Fold each of these.
Amino acid sequence: MIKREVLHIGLCKARHDIMTNDGEEVTDFFFEKIENPHDYLHIERTAWDKIVSDVIPDFDTVYIYVTGLTMALTSVLKMFRLNWDDFQTIQLMHYDRETNTYKAQLWK
């Protein structure tokens, strides 16, 4: 299977409308809804399922638009760490209010 080059994915759906810096809408998310933000095991399992079913098979580079809960982000990063060798690049995208764009923070 040939991997696509880049995935743009949001952390939590419906927290904010997310557009890439190229003007494309981000429509894929790790979490549709988090019922209990302190159910870390459930959050980690949801992140794991998304990574192994949708992300690892198809992408070399992942841009994660950081919107939402800290525990969601740490769970996603923890699950990526378990599959570290499958990715060349993971970028965390943080919103910059001054420029209305996202700034990349290299994670891996």
Note: The chain has one domain: 4-95.
Amino acid sequence: MQTFEGGSITFVDDSEGKKIIDISNIKIGTSPLIEHIVLVDSLKHNLLSISQLCDKGLRVIFYSTRCNIIDKKNACLLTGYGKNNVLYN
């Protein structure tokens, strides 16, 4: 993991910006490398871009309490579960 200096995110409600601690990459099985996963101070989960997943040829299917990330062979790579409008793994 490389060290990341500076940066913050601000949520849609304009709440106080949260400091970005690090940016990393992940690879699940034979799936494409997903770059720029953001670790944010005081959040319990990392942030990743749904559009980046789609750009890599993956599909993201949302349900009321979960989402599935599906590869090109229709295999489920990852399931995220939701609570209070937040999806987590």
Note: The beta strands are 8-9, 18-26, 34-40, 59-62, 66-70, 76-83, 86-88.
